[in-house]
Amino acid sequence: MNQKRIYLAHRTEDGRSQTVLAHLEETARRSAAFAADFGAEAQGRLAGLAHDLGKYSDAFQRRLLENGPRVDHATAGAYECLRRNQPFAAFAVAGHHGGLPDGGGRGDGPDSATFFGRMERAQQGRLADYAVWQDELTLPGAALPDGVADNLSGMFFTRMLFSCLVDADYTDTSAFMSGRAPDGGRADCMDALWARLQAHISGWFPPKGALNAHRCAILEQCIREGQRRAPDLYTLTVPTGGGKTVASLAFALAQAKAQGLKRVIYVIPYTSIIEQTAKVFRDILGDENVLEHHSNVLSDTAADGESSAESERFTRATETWDVPVVVTTAVQFFESLFSCRPAQCRKLHNLARSAIIFDEAQMLPLPYLRPCVWAVCQLVRRFGASAVLCTATQPALGPLIRAFAPELSQDELCPMAPQEWDAFRRVAFRRAGKVRWDELAAQLQSRDQVLCVVNARRTAQTLYQKLAGEGNFHLSTLMCPAHRQAVLDEVRRRLAQGLPCRVVSTSLIEAGVDVDFPAVYREEAGLDSLLQAAGRCNREGRRAAEDSEVVLFQGEDRPPRLFETAIGAGRMVLDRFADIASREAVHAYFSALLDLKGEEAQDVQGIMSLMQTEFFPFRTVAERFHLIDSPTRTVYVPLGEGKALVERLRNGEGGRALYRQLGQYGVSVYQQHFEALDRAGAVLRLEDGSFALADVKLYSGETGLAMDVESGGVQFI
């Protein structure tokens, strides 16, 4: 009697093996559990069972056991799903190794890399024979999902299903190969996080002073709304200085606890302020409950180059977001939503049944505004997420949201009467017209404590160099984070002690930086930037508004082209409204800005029309969707503690802990700037692919990295 052949999915170096059937069943179980969060359990199970059917071929077994040629094992399962009229599962299976393909057309030949090309290859019998799978299992039926009626919704559902499959496949494979179950960490449940928040804010009551009373009222309102509101799309419009960071977290935790949501995701536009917000949340909720995920945090192995339990937990958390609170950037969030790659998409199913806070919502990227808003609407409509657009200057997105999802509420969580809004009015605005830099420097010099915010890094350096005497400071992204933090610490000390303190800064100081100046100068910009700068003046309300001046001026240089439309819309509002900080003025500004830009400017890559007219163009969409059009490179600065850290990196040391420390000594430079430094021999390429500043004379202890280098004096903004 012939013994039944055993087909293997994986084999370890020490000889342990996992059968295809065992891997498919466990992957299906996990995938179904993930997809159950958005009512697609059967679809998840089908994709899990089908994804590796191609491993039932003799060709794959030779590949596994004898190091034979590579075998396309994903197309087989995709073809079986498509034969059963399951296109969503078919795409998910087809892409689970190489990424989601473009759909293409039914006329695509068998050599095409499109989905239909691969299906034609299967139809022609050009795959390795895998028919023996039918002896071991049967693919289950699965009802097609509700509410998936067109290309747009179908693509989004497929990407979420793909996420479930990829996470399940990776998790089971990793568990088998390592010989141990995945470590989910030591995170607390929502009830415990709620208790931690309550303990943190308990000392705020009863509030001391009128301004803190208003902040506590906003906090209490957000908690009440969180306890009673179902998942939906909301706005939270809180004046600058109103405590919206903790208030929005309180809403999210209250809603998660009341509605059974699984996590809170906090999306921030700037990498420069994400660490500060993450620290606030860690102080409230504990390190183990908060994941900080952005480009400056690398999931790497431990410092000795070997894997550790802690580094593995962190790596898995950044790949899956399976933690109670995630603090991330808009770039990480939205580029994952439009990616086709398995590693980037793995986390997406964990957006379902989450409370998602978009901090500084006015900073949603205009060139991709339509696809971004559409994606948020999809998460709320179909996947049980709750979304909050949180800002002091609420963008005019109502018409766009209604076009994509008219049933979403867009309710304001903290409606405030005019007199309540006025309670946060702490400054008086004055328009100064056009000024020359020498004249402006003299005005700044005449004040003991003043902040001046300009649009360009070169302007900041020029203006700073015109100041004389003690107490003058410069801030820009040409300074590494450790340097900026040291300057801010000294600035806060001087402000508190009444010492001379004049700061010239780019816009980096406008969001999330807690400083309180008696006067602020702001170069003309968009209205949201003007109001953000004003939030650094009389922040704690210790002075009368009329004694706290915000001076708006035009510089002598032409503004960067990037800002021209926003400046134009801002001038229209400045001319029309006596109170430019009113909600009516802010709404008029954003409406004018969108009108001036036009609909095409809200989707510069034509992503929405592409998804509507082409059949599931996953790869093309991913190639087009890049929020950062001018990528930067990080150059580490070997000064202060950074010198020893760079030396450790040069000596071959690595690991997440080292890279995290090095992040405090890195400067992000645009490509043109980097090339000028490179031509001058000012950067050193390290073995790990990173770069260090070779000529430390190019880094000033006052203004940071030089913008001009000897090889041509290239100028940058």
How does this structure look, described?
It is a single chain. By secondary structure, this protein is an alpha/beta fold. It folds into 4 domains: 171 residues, no CATH class; 228 residues, 3-Layer(aba) Sandwich (Rossmann fold), CATH 3.40.50.300; 155 residues, P-loop containing nucleotide triphosphate hydrolases (Rossmann fold, 3-Layer(aba) Sandwich), CATH 3.40.50.300; 74 residues, no CATH class. Helices cover 44% and strands 13% of the residues. It has 28 helices and 21 strands. A 7-stranded parallel sheet has the order 5-6-4-7-8-3-9, with helices on both faces. Strands 10-15-14-11-13-12 form a 6-stranded parallel sheet. The relative contact order is 0.09. The C terminus is likely disordered.
The proportion of residues in beta strands is 5-15%
Based on helices, strands and strand pairing, what is the structural class?
A: alpha/beta
Shape: globular
Instruction: Please give the number of β-strands.
Output: 21
| CATH homologous superfamily descriptor of the largest domain | P-loop containing nucleotide triphosphate hydrolases
What integer is the average pLDDT?
Answer: 91
Uncertain stretches: 298-306, 711-717
Largest sheet: 7 strands, parallel
Just name the CATH architecture of the largest domain: 3-Layer(aba) Sandwich
Radius of gyration of CA atoms, rounded to a whole number: 28 Å
Q: Tell me the strand order in the biggest sheet.
A: 5-6-4-7-8-3-9
CATH names the topology of the largest domain as: Rossmann fold
Number of helices: 28
- What share of the residues lie within helices? 40-55%
Q: What is the rounded distance between the termini?
A: 79 Å
CATH class category of the largest domain: Alpha Beta
The number of domains: 4
